Amino acid sequence: MRMSFLTRSVILILLVAFSAITAAWGFYYLKTEAIGIAATLLFIVFTWHLISYQTRFFSKISYFFDAVRNEDSALSFPKSKNDPFLNELSSNLNRINEQIKKIKTESRQQEQYFQTLTDHVATGILSFDDTGFIFNANKNLKQMLGLEQLTHLRQLHKVDNQLAHVLKNLPPGNQRMHTIKSTSGKSINLLLKSTSFKNKDRTLRLVSLQDINDQLSEKEMESWLKLIRVLTHEIMNSIAPVTSLSENLKNLYIRDGEVISPEMVSETTIAKTAKGLEVIEQQGVGLINFVESYRKLTRLPNPELKPVNVKNLIENTVLLNKSLWPDIQISLQINDPDLKISADEKLFSQVLINLLKNATESLYDQQNGRIHIQASCNQERKIEICIKDNGPGIPPELLEEIFVPFFTTRESGSGIGLSLSRQIIRLHGGKLTATSQPGKETTFCIEVRPTD
Asked: Which single residue of 11, 109, 332, 414 has CA 20 to 30 Å from 386?
């Protein structure tokens, strides 16, 4: 007959209590030593049995939890022939242990699956804690860095002196580019993206490192093709009329393959020649100006960075613009009058003037033309200056073309203003972007770091 642990324990406790009372009753009330000694012996036997029984029960429980804590899943509890309850306890513990082994096996299989998955990803993946200890580095990352083992960020000093510092100080949710040298001496441009996650009681950082050399080369080639296309267009537009006009002028003085005599040159021929030379001169001057524009684009000075107050910078630019176009309505929204950026004031002003001039010119012949300028600190803690106009907008297919050198949609434009502006902002460590809704509005935004 099976008895539960509680029932058996209660019976033993009652027997211990009964034997103790009987011993006391025999010694003190009946004054009979035989009864007292017999009851005392029974008390000792029942107490030992109770302690032994409970010790066996709790030792099995304790041994099981020690094994779980030490991740020892090889243990097995033998069945007890003499005690049905302990036999059932052993069976239950063995069953729980088998379940834990099953969960561990599935967990290892899942871990191996994700490890295999990350090893097949074409991007380097790295996870580490605040001390720099690396928990995971996939196969692609090790191949990219030329390292067989990677257990701590300090090992990255073998590859690049700054890489470990950059990885550790890259805020979660941010990304940046970093260039390293491969073991063959080739430069590798890495795009680093960071995020964080919780693993038990630790906060870990997960960073992806993507080799973007091919993408940059493709983008660079695309930019060169755009530039060559525009240069070819501009040069051909200048040279073609000069060639045609030169041929016409030559035909005025050569007939049947021979130069005509001075007597045959009429006043009309001289007038045509003078007019033709004037046009050739104009085209030549235009081509010289075009080349000068190109030289401006390729000979930008390095900016002399100093703390500049954004509010004063914008207000001075607006004042200058209003003196040239007093009819254009300009509104300002500066969220913090103390915003400061590290900038070359002269170069940065040139960008603002150009953007404001473009916005103003887009509002020609438009009623209720308005320009809105906003300066604020965005979520990435960078200063953002946006110039928005309610002009005709820019078609989507031209939004990136407008930054290509010498590309212009205006007859009087040189096509280098926006390209020059973007290059100046890049020299300041920032970026210049454009968004537009045709027929509604266009916005140009400058994003730069604040002063340290």
From this structure: 414
